[in-house]
UniProtKB/TrEMBL annotation, chain A:
One of its GO terms (molecular function) is dimethyl sulfoxide reductase activity. It comes from Pontibacterium sinense. Keywords: Membrane, Transmembrane, Transmembrane helix. It holds the Pfam family DmsC. PANTHER family: ANAEROBIC DIMETHYL SULFOXIDE REDUCTASE CHAIN YNFH. One of its GO terms (cellular component) is dimethyl sulfoxide reductase complex. GO terms for biological process: anaerobic electron transport chain. The keyword Glycoprotein does not apply. This is Dimethyl sulfoxide reductase anchor subunit.
From TrEMBL, chain B:
One of its GO terms (molecular function) is metal ion binding. It holds the Pfam family Fer4_11. Residues 3-34, 62-94, 96-125 form the 4Fe-4S ferredoxin-type domain. The lineage of its organism: Bacteria, Pseudomonadati, Pseudomonadota, Gammaproteobacteria, Oceanospirillales. It comes from Pontibacterium sinense. CDD domains: PsrB. This is 4Fe-4S dicluster domain-containing protein. The keyword Hydrolase does not apply. The keyword 4Fe-4S applies.
Length: 309, 229
């Protein structure tokens, strides 16, 4: 699949924003001492707001006819993209209510803080889940059509969110919260495990072949001619191919930047390096998302001559 | 009603006539235009609703060239419709035709990702999704003579390799062809239940191979014959 840059930015940024806001709100409402500080909460909330809104705006950039984007709320019953749009919008009043309450009344856990906070945290996770299901529900792309896809999206969103949360907390208060630090380390390990399982899983051959695609299941089939002299929409969208050894190099790079380096930086327990770790993870996840697209092979490729996907 | 096409892979000669007729009709039809980018330039790119690909099946001496025209299969279980967030893509209750409402589409490409058959192409100028309409603006047009109320591709095919009809009617020409010729669906394992059906090539005797022999062998054989006598 052709990796559209706007979609990479959207899924990584909004994923990190949703992860950040969920962990922060839960930490605050369940009484984590380092999060009972309205400057920390407002900074974290502002950052999450910026990441999520920036991501959503970026996602509209890949629409070829954005003037009809408002219609995307209309097929909630069947379409994951529609559900994502609806929940993404529903999330805002809860987030803004929660932040406004902190700004006005401080960090005390009142009924209104709980209502708005738990609502925002739940909707953040639901939206992230819907985003992942857009991909996971496509039977045409074996590498996405798996429960590993939502697990990946949610684990990596929480992971990048936890690093951002630890970074914000230490940057604002000047000292490191060991609880947030431990949570971030745990989630980095979890994210790495989930990603490695995914990479192993997509390596296994399975699914449709050129034989089932053309209906000639008892003989070999070779493409002679695609029938056009230059690439069309299908070639550009689905024909995206990267050399195998470049993919391997990028995988190694991705694991290093997104997981290993941030983990090592976390081990130093230094407040300044936490910010660097969070930034590295976001960059690493951009590579991860790029690979998620580049390694996905749509079944249309079979009609264009691939023997299997 | 369940309208669709039967494509005969035995007789299709791969002339691209159906694709051209389709482009001609539909560029000024209900979903038109079907625009092209750079049509006379170096790297032309445009929206087509029908594409013909050519394959070689099996190995010599049994190999056969098969031309495979593909347009929307008007699937019974069309995920391209359910994934569409705007409601632009829909499947008609009355005849099963899958269409895109050009006034609602936002060009998100998701339906083209959900289609296994490459039947949907984004219009490079309009930014909306285009796909085969089964010539809905021909087949019901009462101003056309009755025998012309057929899709443009079916009308134009010089070898009559495309047949249009109702798959729900067991006595229709398409249903009979599917029965008699063991019609096949493409990629049935994905469960889209495509309506369009493909008739496999008939089995024909293998072409005889002429074995060449060298001059030396010919002379040797001739000499042997003379000596043996
Ligand atoms: S062939 Fe593709 S576009 Fe046509 S109905 Fe089936 S899934 Fe939809
Ligand atoms: S490209 Fe248009 S028709 Fe296709 S899913 Fe998006 S809005 Fe629906
Ligand atoms: S039925 Fe009409 S729209 Fe569909 S491929 Fe044939 S000519 Fe094109």
């Amino acid at each position: 699949m052709h990796p559209a840059f706007s979609v990479l930015v959207f899924t990584v940024m909004s994923g990190a924003g949703y992860g950040l806001i969920t962990l922060m709100i839960l930490g605050h409402l369940f009484g984590l001492p380092q999060l009972q500080d309205s400057t920390v909460l407002l900074t974290g909330g502002g950052l999450a707001f910026a990441l999520i809104s920036g991501g959503l705006l970026s996602s509209t950039l890949h629409l070829a006819n954005p003037k009809n984007a408002w219609r995307s709320f209309s097929r909630f019953k069947t379409s994951w993209l529609s559900r994502e749009a609806v929940f993404a919008v529903l999330f805002y009043p809860f987030l803004l209510g929660y932040l406004a309450n902190i700004w006005a009344n401080g960090t005390e856990v009142t009924g209104i803080a709980q209502l708005a906070g738990f609502g925002a945290a739940a909707l953040a996770m639901v939206t992230l889940f819907c985003t992942s299901m857009i991909y996971a529900s496509l039977k045409t792309i074996r590498q996405w059509n798996s429960s590993l896809t939502p697990v990946n999206y949610i684990a990596l969103g929480l992971m990048s969110g936890s690093l951002l949360l630890a970074a914000v907390q230490s940057a604002v208060t000047g000292d490191l919260s060991s609880t947030l630090h431990t949570i971030a380390m745990g989630l980095v390990v979890l994210g790495a495990v989930v990603k490695v399982i995914y990479l192993f899983w997509i390596g296994k051959p399975a699914g449709s072949t050129i034989n089932t695609a053309t209906g000639f299941t008892q003989a070999s089939v070779r493409l002679l001619d695609q029938g056009h002299t230059s690439n069309g929409f299908l070639n550009n969208e689905f024909g995206y191919t990267v050399e195998a050894n470049k993919l391997v190099r990028l995988r190694v790079l991705m694991v290093a930047i997104a997981f290993v380096l941030p983990f090592l930086l976390l081990l130093t327990s230094s407040a300044g390096l936490l910010v660097l770790a969070a930034i590295l993870t976001i960059i690493g996840l951009l590579v991860e998302r790029w690979l998620f697209f580049a390694e996905a092979r749509h079944v249309v490729r079979l009609f264009h001559g691939d023997q299997r996907v | 009603m369940k309208l669709g096409l039967v494509v005969d892979l035995d007789t299709c000669v791969g002339c691209h006539g159906c694709a051209t007729a389709c482009k001609q009709w539909n560029t000024s039809g209900t979903i038109g235009p079907l625009s092209d980018e750079n049509p006379y330039g170096k790297d032309p790119n445009g929206a087509w609703l029908n594409r013909i690909r050519t394959y070689e099946v099996d190995d010599t001496p049994n190999s056969k060239t098969v031309n495979m025209p593909m347009s929307c299969m008007h699937c019974d279980n069309a995920a391209c419709v359910t994934v569409c967030p705007t409601g632009a893509s829909y499947k008609r209750e009355e005849d099963g035709i899958v269409l895109v409402d050009q006034d609602k589409c936002m060009g998100c490409n998701l339906c083209s990702w959900a289609c296994p058959y490459g039947a949907r192409e984004l219009d490079p100028q309009e930014g909306t999704m285009k796909k085969c309409t089964l010539c809905v603006d021909r087949i019901y047009d009462e101003k056309l003579p009755e025998d012309e109320r057929k899709p443009a591709c079916v009308m134009t095919c010089p070898t009559k390799s495309r047949v249009f009809g109702d798959f729900d009617d067991p006595n229709s020409e398409v249903s009979q062809l599917v029965r008699d010729r063991a019609g096949k669906q493409l990629m049935p394992e994905l469960g889209y239940e495509p309506v369009n059906t493909y008739l496999p090539p008939r089995n024909k005797p293998v072409v005889e191979m002429y074995e060449t022999t060298s001059l030396k062998d010919t002379v040797k054989g001739w000499v042997n014959k003379v000596i043996a006598r």
